[in-house]
Amino acid sequence: MKIAITGGTGFVGTRLVQKLTDAEHNILVFTRDKKKGEKVFPKQGFPQVEIIEYNPLEPGSWQETIASSQAIVNLAGAGIADQPWTPQRKQEILDSRIETTKHIVEAIQQAQTKPQVLVNASAVGYYGTSETASFDESSSAGDDFLASVCQKWEAAAKEAENTETRLVILRFGIVLGEGGALGKMLTPFRFFAGGPIGTGKQWFSWIHIDDLVNLIQQAIHSAEYQGVYNATAPNPVRMSELCKNLGEVMNRPSWLPVPEFALKLLLGEAAQAVLEGQQALPKRTQQQGFTYQYPTVKPALADIVQQ
């Protein structure tokens, strides 16, 4: 099967490409930086991977290439919490998702032979934040910046519903793996300086990277998957519980919290992505029969720390 992936050199995309090539699929990795793509996926180790440089914010010949694949996985998007949310950064976060998705859908609409499936990323930020409520796929959207981004992102993807291409939207929780958010948390714990971020009461809806990759693979291959699914583990935790478990699996204390004001000084409004959360439950994902390898957080953390 020929599978096109945008964001294929990122944290999730890299693991996904590795798993798909292990299953002997042919992969088209779309990237802004071809040299980076060739470094991540050298031809000697990944003969089934073709690196294609593109500008996702502009239409071009890349659209015909992406539409020639049998499946498309759209993971493209600027990082949410790695820079302060200046007006320019907010626009980058929005455009990198919406414009890329619009151009992918245009390519599908114009293709004579349609791809079988488009798996489009979104995020549980769709629901807004709450310390008391829980959300599943039927819950309404929030009203903050991230919720607005997710609504527009999903609306752009839903334009593909008018084609013969099956659409699956996966609302990602925080992905636990060797990189990403957890990777940034491991360093202070290694130096006996770990602890919860902010109050510790905020919900942390998470998923182990291997479960996420398996869910994406099932969404590609199973025609039963259609519509919106929460890509989260069935047992979200509060930040304090996450850090307690992380300390235990690393044999380190979890006693030094990161003050809320310090994070706000560093990241400004973008601190919202870390200091606030939501309890997102994968109701449709479980109804679909998806089996989690890591349904609870401590074994998930132990696996990642051991790696």
In short:
By secondary structure, the chain is α/β, with parallel strands linked by helices. The chain has 12 helices and 13 strands.
Question: What would you say this structure looks like, in words?
Answer:
The protein has twelve helices and 13 strands. With 307 residues, it is an alpha/beta fold. It has a single domain, classed as NAD(P)-binding Rossmann-like Domain (Rossmann fold, 3-Layer(aba) Sandwich). Strands 3-2-1-4-5-7-11 form a seven-stranded parallel β-sheet, with helices on both faces. It has a two-stranded parallel ribbon with strand order 6-13. It has a two-stranded parallel ribbon with strand order 8-10. The longest helix has 24 residues. The radius of gyration is 19 Å and the shape is globular. The two termini are 30 Å apart. The mean pLDDT is 94.
